[in-house]
Amino acid sequence: MNSKEKYKALIDIDKDRIVEMAWEDRTPFEAIEIQFGLKEQEVIELMRREMKPSSWRMWRERVQGRNTKHLAKSLIDDFRHKCSRQRSISYNKVSKR
Description:
The chain is mainly α and 97 residues long. It has five helices and two strands, in the order αααααββ. Helix 2 (12-23) packs across helix 4.
């Protein structure tokens, strides 16, 4: 399945969640790939389609070269502190506290 087919298969809620995860500094692209099956380049394409041009440029500038967006480069371990108010996310299902 190519990236255009993957994009068309996503519902609006999934697209919104992917955009939200891509904006988060500590959410790596690998987490998005596990949950939604989109590789980094496909996430970049989705962001370009879903965002205003100025917002997309701001996001690309922010994300480019950021180590925390890649698990292999990240110095942050999986056991870092999480806020008690943060919702836990497991395979695209958001559970309440």
